[in-house]
Amino acid sequence: MMTSLISVRKLCFSSNRNLLSCTKHLKNLTSPRCNFTTWNKQISKVLKKNKGLSIKVIQPTRGTTTDAATAPFSRQQKIIGAWLFGCAGMCFGAVILGGVTRLTESGLSMVDWQLLKDMKPPRSQQEWEEEFERYKQYPEYQHIIKERDFTLSDFKFIYYMEYGHRMWGRMIGVAFLVPAAFFLSKGWVNRSLKFRLAGNAALLGFQGFLGWYMVKSGLQQQPLPTDVPRVSQYRLAAHLGSAFILYSMFLWQGLTQFIPINNLPNTSQMRRLRIMAHSIKGLTFVTAISGAFVAGLDAGLTYNSWPKMADRWIPSDLLAFSPTWKNFFENPTTVQFDHRHLAESTVLLIAAFWYMSRKAPLPPRMRMAVNALLGMGLLQASLGISTLLMYVPTPLAATHQSGSLVLLSFAVWLTHEFRRLPK
Ligand code: HEM
Fold it and tell me: DSSP label at 372?
């Protein structure tokens, strides 16, 4: 039976930052502004003493001024935030390492996948020779490498590249799971972050699976003897896309531990800008995925001119494949055409956003995000054009790939600044 009612006003909702202030009956909750864990402990004590007590949580109306923006973040949140940023940084590293592995044609050097056994590379001369012999059975060696003067030491180089990428992936797993278990055992993680961390763990496992699923496609015999043995562009795009999502999730959750919600006016101008910011993030992601198709098909090695493709705006073989839909994923011309125009649209949208937001009352940190986004958008497009004009040199292509992640980071940051108080 309910004996009395406690009214509590929720001041802040960012995931690990539920600061609460008590408005009635709660003399026992000594501090009016305490962090989530302390508050939880205190409220449990009160509930134990007063059997049947119920609590009503009153949320503030959107857009009203609360002291949430100025409330300090707890030490625990900062530690969790630093850890999440660390995980995001490690994902970033994995993307760069994966890109360089692909660009140095090292990705198919390890011809099987075992969680623990893979961790021990060949040691003796005999083990290396056995591993090299195994590699020689697979299509990449049979159709491409065999023609070259390829020695055991060349094999060691490509093997260590792939080994490094796989070990880095495992290290992300450890760097995520061990601290997560610690924070959970300490009760530092609130309910909403618990769900998010479970999502991260699932995606991390899925990312490893996709990596092997992608490599497997490059180890199979190609249908035609003229086909170049390479991984499926669909699987490459899925592997890259899921890495970008995982990275963005870590980054978003990390930002939430440090950056308070802005108290933005609820005007139509602000709503328009918010929608545009989310569209930029979405379009950047789609452009990046289309870039993975360019990389997967080596489509950067055709039509090495800009802005026209050869001397035409619309190349003659744009829809050469049948059925038509196949062109968008399998025809190098169409795939490159799409990537160019998606990229140009992304940069135009960013420029339009920058222009439209000039007179909006944005806080200084938001203004910084907008400027950074515009600068990076222009730089990324220049990197892409240079990569194309110079026939995809490895250092430039790898920089272009990392640039896409930096651009996505600024878009994530900007949309994070537009975060609303949860209902
Ligand atoms: C918003 C701008 C852009 C973004 C976000 C972006 C993103 C990407 C990504 C993620 C890749 C895949 C890299 C990999 O997996 O190794 C890629 C590849 C590529 N992009 Fe872009 N790109 C942009 C602009 C451009 C532009 C304007 C061009 C040229 C007109 C271009 C040309 C290329 C080429 C040639 C590749 C293939 C490189 C390779 O084979 O490794 N990109 N892009």
Answer: H
